[in-house]
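batch job 7 of whatever, protein = Peptide-binding protein
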Amino acid sequence: MQRRLNGRDILYFGGLTLVLITIVLVMYMIDRQWQKMSRMEQLMREQAGDIREITNQVRGLERRIQQGVSLNQNVGLEQGELPAAFQRAHAVTQQADYSQGDWLVQAFGVNLKSLTPFISQDVYSSQVQSYILETLLIRNPDSLEWQGLLAHDWHVSEDGLTFIFKLREGLQFSDGAPLTAEDVVFTFEFIMTEAIQAPRERAYYAKIESVEAIDPLTVKFQFAEPYFNALSLAGGMEIMPKHFYEPYLDDPNAFNQSKGLLLGSGPYRLEDPKGWAPDKGGVELRRNPRYWGPVEPAFDRLIWRVIENDSARLTTFRNGEIDTYSSRPREYKQLTEDKHIQGKAQHWEYMSPVAGYSYIGWNQLRNDQPTRFAQAEVRQAMTYLIDRQRIADEIYLGYAEVAVSPFSASSKQHDPAIRARGYNQEKGIALLADAGYADRDGDGVLEDSEGRPFEFELVYFQGNEDTGRMALFLKDMLARAGILLQPKPTEWSVMLDLMKKRDFDAITLGWSSGLETDLYQMFHSSQIAGGGNNFINYSNPELDRLIEEARATVDEDTRMPLWRQAEAHLFNDQPYTFLRRSKSLVFIDRRLQNVVNTKVGLNLGQVPLENYVPAAEQRYTQ
């Protein structure tokens, strides 16, 4: 029997049709709104560019009036009129295929704990902050000469104790507030406030006696004593907006416990300068529409995703979801021969002159009690018992060299007469015997005089596969000498807490380096207390004296022998077993243009930004 539609069926289907039509209309309206928002964003960007161009022209007019140049002459921003710090970035904008737009998407191997200045403690958060917080000076990446960024001029007194900086006109933070000398003064005073959790920074700036605003665009740094790195110290201070951070002086605890308080004057900004949190799953920065600089960065957004697993990061790079990949040595050669990877990426292999080093830090004091590593003989023995050359050759496949000290072998700070200790099990065991360790019960494990086995935990970051392989390698190697190593893979945030509390036996990490390495924060005994970076509780009064003398010696020829003497103490004491310095093995998506190697490494992400994506190759266009 055939069923016919009745009135109820007609109403039902009519209602369903109405719902479908409504959904389509809603989707259409959302799409229209999205397009409208995209056009508004583009319009705002164009207006910001227009305003910047007008500002530049006005500045050019002012300069020409002051110089008595005819106003009928061209007033555009010529290369010679640009601040030196922006000339490289400006030259890139003149390339035929230059275009603004697209996103630069990268990945962090750790989940950041905080982006708040000083509260954050790692190189990853510093990388994000470098796009938001700016300094008075920056170095030219090729000549290494200082160039003015926020400051256009500076003067140093004959005694090297007074530094006067002249700020540029028209500086402003990303919320539109002007940046003046008062913000520079505030930054210093904020850091030196004891209630603010910034012990490392206070130690770093302790040589500055005062910072004074002479007028809105002039600021004076007065040093209490000579310091070899004084210009870098003053000129490299990241300037914080007084109006944004000053309220936290009344409630320091709110600042100390914050996760994402980050506002500055740089080319990028957080969409919500108070709202970032670790559960965001990464970091997204957007172009600062109020950026004061004469050259606008190309990328609309900078994005970092959190991908802790090395293999997962490589898969994500293969799929084109991130633009850069730092390769592990054991996969590097294979990737250079991979046709898919070679078709989509360029690769770089280099040892940066400022390459950092990895190490094992031996904690000498735990729970207020000396550990077995408080004895220098034990620390020396541990270095002899670790075959660092095999680690460099077998785990890092020759893309690394054995580290001798905190100083690079090419640095003037390094004494060429000091050579890395080679693997020597016999000598290591003899040193442990001198320290009171022996296999007293014949079980193959060393015990101390009270019969306690030589056993310790090695804390390492759980997301790094090569470090995990090294930990197992070390366990096997030390077992041959009668030492029980227990690898302890650990989350990054937990590692930071363990360092802060000094609650570990041994830990393997890495430090970044500079053109000249200051040992104060890592090895001076004053940096043990208050959460400083001497988290292994190492103290050597003679080393303290040498560090202090070297830092106060401005003349390089006199200073370098002091650093070499300090290096000799570290070589003898072995507070760290210095493991390796590694080459960078980097793959970068071919659509990213103007990636070049400089004296401080690749310029990718270097501020002012020098990279871009041609319009035809942009992936994230609106």
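notes: The first strand starts at residue 103 and ends at 108.
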